Amino acid sequence: MTTGPEAPKIPAHIAVIMDGNGRWAKEKGLHRVRGHEEGAETVRRITRECTRLGVKRLTLYAFSSDNWKRPAHEVEFLMALLQRYLAGERREIMENRIRFRTIGRRTGLPDEVRREIDDLVEVSRTNPGMVLSLALNYGGREEIVDAARRIAEDARRGIVDPAAIDEVTFGKYLYDPGAEDPDLLIRTGGDVRVSNFLLWQISYTELWVTPVKWPDFTVELLREAIRDFSARERRFGGIADE
Ligand code: FPP
Fold first, then answer.
1. pLDDT confidence of residue 239
2. Which residue's CA lies nearest to atom 8 of ligand 1?
3. Model pTM above 0.90
4. Angle ∠(21,140,36) on CA atoms, nearest 5
């Protein structure tokens, strides 16, 4: 990417809905799961580029709480792929000083996947580089419900005063309370919807959609999304500066 006065602003937090794996495979006469396998390669490419560009946090929607509705063999394949990815990426994550995190409900994830997650979160805990956050068994409404339930429990125990609950208090009960809201949300695969992703966090996020399916998503397209983002005026409900 260019440097100098006209260099694009790099979004601090990029979130991605990685869609189109199944269609990518079908188009080629392949089984859907081949699309996920190829999608894992794109995850590697894009993570590396985000690190290089100086992105502070990358959040990837890897498995939604609704993805359990898929055929059992596809779910099993995705879980095995995740386990393989988590084990296989350890070296790259450590070399690039990435801090690994996940968001989502832990219940339902296979023990082996949970073990790999815990291990990677722990070894990378003090890494000073980009945060890579995988949304696994994640749903935006579930996250809000889980936060509300925990606040209610704390209110019952007298730890929080219900009258004093505001957005900042609420934010502390989300899955990753330290995370800033995404600046840019990229969706591949052409559909223009948010699919229950980061509902609380995307209120002022810039959206960027491409028809390109996730396995074909490139570093050049990522740069194009960043250039578009950079040219937008973000007002957060206010008015433009004079
Ligand atoms: C959507 O494609 C994608 C998913 C449900 C899973 C995303 C998973 C990966 C990119 C690979 C594994 C992830 C990691 C982190 C290793 P889809 O199957 O819904 O595509 P379609 O809309 O064409 O059917």
1. 82
2. 62
3. yes
4. 15
